[in-house]
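Quick question, first post here. What does this chain look like in 3D?
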Amino acid sequence: MMRSFLLAIDAGSSSIRCTAYEYHRHHSGGGSGTHDDKTNLAPLSSSSSSSTHSPPLVTAVKGVSHAIPLEAIVPNTGHIRIHEVLAAIDNCVDETLKLLRQRMLSCDLTHSYPHQVVAIGFSTFVMNFVALDIHGDPVGEVATCSYACNRDDVVEECQRLRESLGAETLHEMYQRSGTPLHTSYALPQLRAFYGNKDNEAIAKTIDKWSTISSICLYRWSGRPQIQMPISYSEASWTGMLNFRTCSWDDQMVDLVETCDGVVQYTEDDLLVDEEYTEGVDLLPPLADFDAALPFLREGTPRYNDDGSENSYWERWPELRSYPMHLFFGVGDGAAANIGSKCSGISTSEYPVGSQRIAVTVGTSAAARVCLHLPLSLYPGVDESNITIPPGLFCYRVHRDRILLGGALTDGGSVVEWARTMLNLQSNESFDACLGQVSEAYEQERTMAGSFASMHGEVTMIPFLSGERSTGFRGGAKGCISGLTRETTPSHVMYACLESVTLRICCILQLIHELCTSQSISGQKPNQCIIVASGKALERNTLWRQMLADCSSMDVVVDDGSSEGTSRGVAMLMAASLQQSEFSDSFATFNNIDEPLNVSGIDRPSAAVSDRWKIAKLAQESLIEAIAPTWNKR
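> Answer (accepted):
Ran it through. Tokens below.
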């Protein structure tokens, strides 16, 4: 039997990873996600399949994954080490295909079992934006943009835009794009780039701006004589896409194209395809992540469009087959939600009708929810009825779904910072400190009203790297208040965990209010639950309990969604393939609904509800008190 595989590339800001997933074409019969042939292929996690459900669309192949650590972004500047990133992606595909070939060999190594790679897809750190020359190659590191930008010139550009546009115009732009004016988005970064006279020479070489995944697809597909689109998802994270119509926002485009230093190009021979919208001078055409463009469905060609040899033909023979689907990139946050089984309102179990909110705490932290909001059947027409609450972002996942939520630059990094500052670098001392925090919090849960004595009255603002959600205040700094001679390391560690929890719950409150008050496409959940992911949450039961108590929601750990971002890419690819192969398949974008494999539930305690209200008030009061001291540029 021919077995089909997908390659999911996760281009993160600290590492590049490629993982092979087996694709299971669902059918009406039973079946299993595992096989007992001599190739020893099996799902990455035995819990990812259940005898009471159909086999999953995808299962990760044990040992067929390769990662390369890489700091993809230059600190503070936001510039992308684009050449290193592209090389690392190619090398990860090299090694993953090599591992797959080895896995598919028979035990006596005499032959290979029939298999094919049917698709490759991406998640990427977002935003990423890269300037290309007329040959489709990056012009240089300085002409790149990313979410991790905190340069003074971009901060100043944000301030100029605030003053010139005014609050009403900025609010209207926010409601169209789903993003506030902030240094992490493309508009101020592009204006700062083109307004810098030192960039005049390199600006003249720029033909289009693109993304990491689209650059890869352009190279792999034979450098077609066409402007390569970027996905709605990646475009949305630039902050310049109208997420309601999936077109570039005209006002923002004008704000970029009227900058001094912008060189205008007219592409008279731009090929127009109904799969994507017409491009503008600087910005690329747009398409959904699974747009069925011919040159992305025909496998890797032997020759580039200009007649030169395509090196990937020899390098990756598995990609020559027809059809071999190349998918545009999706934002890593969107992929993480899909991969952690938070694609929308549950129609399966735990419980039916619940809205799953993905909360991830790693180095950073985020809370996000997928909502069903299809594009209008009429191009450029906005038929949505959603109002984005100030403090949240809203991005496109694909044509049928949006991703609404918020993010903190510092999540688990706050704990790591405190661990270093308090000299708790040995596991023994760190574990002992966390044990004291856990004991103190457990006493609070059983002895309501003793907040001050247990906590030490220490309050923290965790903006060590500035503030994103919910205030998006420029120049924000961290702060610890309430220190006395009696303050201990456990009091400070307690305040760190509490502070991040409080900021996450500010995001959760806005999400909950929107989901339960606005009927989006006629859907309202009967309740909201949190699905926790990220090593910091998965390994820390205390933090999960704090999150449950502060949010008044159940916090669930799922046992079957390891490597959620990569898995999300594989699920999106598989759903698209399934939709195209079986028109009556359940696996549509309207609902990639999977049952949770619950390994643990932390439920909120009403006994500490007042304690968290006091803590929230203390933190908000501290922020208001010290915000005037922050750099207001």
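Residues 18 and 93 are 6 Å apart (CA to CA).
The mean pLDDT is 85.
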